[in-house]
Input
Amino acid sequence: MTSPEAFTSHLRATALELGTDLFGVAASGRFLDPQYAGNKPQDIMETARSVIVIGVAVPSGCIDHLPKGRAEYTNTLMAGTATLRVIAYRLAREIEKSGYKATIVPTEGSEFGYWYADRKTLMADTSIKYAAFCAGLGSFGINHLLITDAYGPRVRMTAIITDAPLSVCENAPRPLIYEGCRECMKCIEACPVTAFKADGTIDRHRCAEYMFQTLGGLRCGLCVKVCPAGRIG
Ligand code: SF4
Ligand code: SF4
Output
C-alpha cells in the first residue's frame, strides 16, 4: 500500500509533468476554522480528507500592457483555466485508479460564466484561494487575490477535493495577509471602481459590474498588473 507521502509525491510529480507551476495540499479540517466563511469540502464530499491545489503562472505578456489587449488577457486567463481543468481531470482519474474519490472545484470566471455559491454576496463556491493559503502556496493581498512567492497574483488555480490520504500542509507557513501590502497599496489606486479599501474590505459587485457590464465580459486585471509582488527587479 502506498504511503500518503509517496502518493502525494506521485501526484505532485504528475501535476508538474503535465505543466502546473504550483502544487499544494490543504487538510479539509482547515475549512472548519471560524475565519473561513465559504463552502466546506465536507459539504460536497462527506469523507473529504484534503484539497489539492494546482496552479499555472499567467504569462506576463498578457498583463503588462493592460488595459490594451484586454481580449487577449481574458483569453489567456481562460486558456490557463482550461489547462488546469485538463490537469485536474488527469489527477482526479489517477486518484480514483488508486481506489479513492476525487471531484474538481468549480473555477470562478470560467468560460461558462461565474459559478458563485451565493449570488448575493458573490462568494465563490469552495474557496480555491483559501485552500491555496492553507496549502502554503501564498497569502491574501489587499486585492483579495492569492499572492504567491514566485508569481505574485499572476496565477490561475483550481482545486480537487479528495478522500485520499495525502501529506497535507500542517500549518500555513505564512501570514494570512501578504506583508508587502502594508507599504504598497498600488492596487487600490489602480482599481477604476474602487472595489477594495485599505482596511481589507471588498465590494465584489463593483468589480463584477465593471467587468460584465462596462467591459462586456472582458476581465479587467489592473489590480494584477500593478502588483509588484513576485516580480523580478
Ligand atoms: S498591489 Fe500592493 S497592496 Fe495590492 S496586493 Fe499587490 S502588494 Fe498588496
Ligand atoms: S479586476 Fe479591475 S475592477 Fe476588479 S478589483 Fe481589480 S482593478 Fe478593480
